[in-house]
């Protein structure tokens, strides 16, 4: 898990990391089931409500439809493509998704 651990139970872990000027949310799902995904979304919403003044972001590899679907399910919306240098200092374009407090 990257960043500060915000929530953890036997099925999910949620952390927040400051990266490239963004508050980036990381979720790990240990057991995939509709009830676990709903609990994850509800937990993200509750944690986000505690930080009403802050937008949560997520990075996604371009074309990763499984991750895109998960982010949409968790309440994130595509924001923009952005350029980064990866760990090997190579150019890379990634998707930046955001979840604004509603």
Give an account of the 3D structure.
The chain contains 2 helices and 6 strands. The chain is of the alpha+beta class and 102 residues long. The chain has a single domain, classed as 3-Layer(aba) Sandwich (Aminopeptidase), CATH 3.40.630. The strands form 2 sheets. Strands 1-2-3 form a 3-stranded antiparallel sheet, with helices on one face. The chain is globular and about 40 Å long.
Question: Main β-sheet, in a few words?
Answer: 3 strands, antiparallel
Ranges with pLDDT <50 over ≥5 residues? none
Shape assignment: globular
Second-tier CATH architecture: 3-Layer(aba) Sandwich
Summed up:
The chain has 102 residues and is α+β, with helices and mostly antiparallel strands. It has helices at residues 34-49, 65-73, and strands at 4-8, 12-19, 22-29, 56-61, 77-85, 91-99.
Task: Itemize the secondary structure elements and their pairings.
Layout: E1 4-8, E2 12-19, E3 22-29, H1 34-49, E4 56-61, H2 65-73, E5 77-85, E6 91-99
Antiparallel strand pairs: 1-2, 2-3, 4-6, 5-6
Features:
alpha+beta; 102 residues
């Amino acid at each position: 898990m990257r960043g500060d651990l915000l929530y953890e139970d036997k099925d999910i872990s949620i952390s927040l990391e400051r990266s490239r000027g963004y508050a980036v949310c990381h979720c790990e799902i240990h057991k995939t089931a509709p009830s676990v995904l709903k609990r994850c979304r509800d937990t993200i919403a509750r944690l986000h409500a505690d930080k009403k003044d802050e937008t949560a972001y997520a990075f996604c590899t371009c074309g990763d439809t499984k991750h895109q679907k998960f982010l949409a399910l968790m309440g994130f919306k595509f924001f923009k493509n952005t350029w980064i240098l990866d760990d090997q200092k190579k150019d890379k374009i990634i998707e930046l998704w955001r979840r604004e407090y509603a």
